[in-house]
């Protein structure tokens, strides 16, 4: 059994996180419920920042809020001295409501609407990461109409494909994201923006995938980008002040996952940037990264209540829980794998393997296909580990199921930071049929 962060088995044989008994959390807030180990979030963020600080390079560590965003999490990111990577008007509104310093907000996305760009400029975000020529034109028009100066990066696709799931590889040339290097798209946008007096192009961004367990892809990306930097300097007089290497740093979900410590990713990245800067006779650019999953992923645990069981002799034993693909769609979407235990019987030995099924009316609503557990029964509390990224943020109301609450735990205290939805919430935006006549 692998326990993350402050998780431990207490004297009652219950799973405890942040000094709080998870059985008590389940009783107080109901299930499903997302539980976040705040101390582990602090530790992960500190690991990234410390490596940069020790190396003495200009940097920003921007929390990728798409992994998990709510007002409390954004405020915690601010406390930790992080910048914020946002990708929508909703995430931008969350940052505003949280009182986050807008100069440390980076606005991403591959299809920013005119309204979103206006909203970002109204709030004074620190940087807009341009993804395509449509966005360039929108930003230029809006900046001119306001006579407003705007800092920007361009997102590039460097042609580096990380060894990861095909759905979340984004650095290869065939991608919906960014300006391709090999076709000359990046050159074209640089020429456009070099002539613009309102949009200040400060550097480039790249992101090569997710759940990456080594640094080879990042090093190769740096090498490929610097080969372009040298040419851009000669042809356009453009020397990037900022190199944003994106995120994608992996975490341990299950046995066999072997991610590096946060500081190791950073150290190898810095080493590569310094080496290529020296070769190109350029100043070392400011380095930005965007960890999301690697800050919150293994800090999250979802608690469920076991309901029905189904035994198919010689085939499989099913346990159904009161959540599923509505609170964690990753197994259905990515075939993602998880580990878990019975939180109320955490000190008992496993007796059999169970398939953990969700309650949605979908045969693909399976959380874990093979999990070793004691002989589980209804009303047991199942804890599924490492659900802190892309669980709550991708939660949905399929089958009109309510979204769970979110609880932060730290120093023996549990704090509700997102209220769970009620059945009334499910229909609050519905409108009645205008006509009562049958056709």
Automatic annotation (TrEMBL):
| Subunit comment | Homodimer.
Give the active-site positions. 361 (proton donor)
What Pfam families does the record point to?
A: Orn_Arg_deC_N, Orn_DAP_Arg_deC
Q: Residues bearing N6-(pyridoxal phosphate)lysine?
A: 66
Q: What is its EC number?
A: 4.1.1.20
Name the positions where pyridoxal 5'-phosphate binds: 248, 290-293, 390
Positions with a binding annotation for substrate: 293, 330, 334, 362, 390
Quote the pathway field: Amino-acid biosynthesis; L-lysine biosynthesis via DAP pathway; L-lysine from DL-2,6-diaminopimelate: step 1/1
Q: Which domain of life is it from?
A: Bacteria
The gene name on file is: lysA
Instruction: Tell me its family.
Output: Belongs to the Orn/Lys/Arg decarboxylase class-II family. LysA subfamily.
Q: What is this protein called?
A: Diaminopimelate decarboxylase
Catalysed reaction(s) here are: meso-2,6-diaminopimelate + H(+) = L-lysine + CO2
- Gene3D superfamilies on file: Alanine racemase, Lyase, Ornithine Decarboxylase, Chain A, domain 1
The keyword Amino-acid biosynthesis is assigned to this record: yes
Its Gene Ontology molecular function terms? diaminopimelate decarboxylase activity; pyridoxal phosphate binding
Q: Which GO terms describe its biological process?
A: lysine biosynthetic process via diaminopimelate
Role played: Specifically catalyzes the decarboxylation of meso-diaminopimelate (meso-DAP) to L-lysine.
Q: Which residues form the Orn/DAP/Arg decarboxylase 2 C-terminal domain?
A: 34-388
> Which HAMAP family does this one have?
LysA
Matching entries from InterPro entries are given as:
Ala_racemase/Decarboxylase_C (IPR009006), DAP_deCOOHase_LysA (IPR002986), De-COase2_C (IPR022643), De-COase2_CS (IPR022657), De-COase2_N (IPR022644), De-COase2_pyr-phos_BS (IPR022653), Orn/DAP/Arg_de-COase (IPR000183), PLP-binding_barrel (IPR029066)
- Orn/DAP/Arg decarboxylase 2 N-terminal domain segment(s): 40-296
């Amino acid at each position: 059994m692998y326990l993350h962060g402050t998780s431990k088995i207490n004297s009652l044989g219950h799973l405890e996180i942040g000094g709080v008994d998870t059985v008590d959390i389940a009783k107080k807030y109901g299930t499903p419920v997302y539980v976040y180990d705040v101390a582990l979030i602090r530790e992960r963020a500190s690991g990234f920042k410390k490596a940069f600080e020790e190396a003495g390079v200009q940097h920003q560590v921007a929390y990728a809020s798409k992994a998990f965003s709510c007002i409390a999490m954004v405020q915690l990111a601010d406390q930790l001295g992080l910048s914020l990577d946002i990708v929508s008007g909703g995430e931008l509104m969350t940052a505003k409501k949280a009182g986050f310093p807008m100069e440390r907000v980076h606005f991403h996305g591959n299809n920013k609407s005119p309204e979103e760009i206006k909203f970002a400029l109204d709030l004074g975000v620190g940087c807009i990461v341009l993804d395509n020529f449509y966005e360039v034109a929108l930003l230029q028009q809006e900046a001119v109409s306001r006579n407003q100066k705007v800092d920007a990066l361009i997102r590039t696709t460097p042609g580096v494909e990380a060894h990861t799931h095909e759905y979340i590889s984004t650095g290869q040339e065939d991608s919906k994201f960014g300006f391709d290097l090999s076709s000359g798209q990046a050159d074209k946008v640089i020429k456009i923006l070099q002539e613009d007096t309102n949009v200040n192009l400060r550097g480039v961004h790249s992101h090569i995938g997710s759940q990456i367990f080594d640094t080879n892809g990042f090093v190769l990306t740096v090498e490929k980008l610097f080969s372009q930097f040298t040419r851009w300097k000669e042809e356009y007089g453009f020397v990037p002040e900022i190199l944003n290497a994106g995120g994608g740093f992996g975490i341990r979900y299950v046995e066999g996952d072997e991610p590096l410590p946060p500081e190791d990713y950073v150290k190898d990245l810095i080493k590569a940037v310094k080496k290529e800067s020296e070769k190109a006779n350029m100043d070392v650019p400011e380095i930005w990264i965007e960890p999301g999953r690697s800050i919150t992923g293994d800090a999250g645990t979802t608690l469920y209540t076991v309901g029905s069981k189904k035994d198919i002799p010689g085939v499989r034993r099913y346990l159904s829980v009161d959540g599923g693909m509505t609170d964690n769609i990753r197994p259905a979407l990515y075939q993602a794998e998880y580990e878990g235990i019975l939180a109320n019987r955490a000190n008992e030995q496993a007796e059999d393997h169970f398939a953990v099924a969700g309650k949605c009316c979908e045969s693909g609503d399976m959380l874990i296909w093979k999990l070793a557990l004691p002989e589980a029964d209804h009303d047991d509390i199942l804890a599924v580990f490492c659900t802190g990224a892309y669980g709550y943020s991708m939660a949905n109301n399929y089958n009109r199921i309510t979204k769970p609450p979110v609880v932060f735990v730290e120093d023996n205290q549990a704090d509700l930071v997102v209220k769970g939805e009620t059945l009334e919430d499910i229909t609050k935006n519905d409108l009645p049929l205008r006509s009562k006549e049958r056709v």
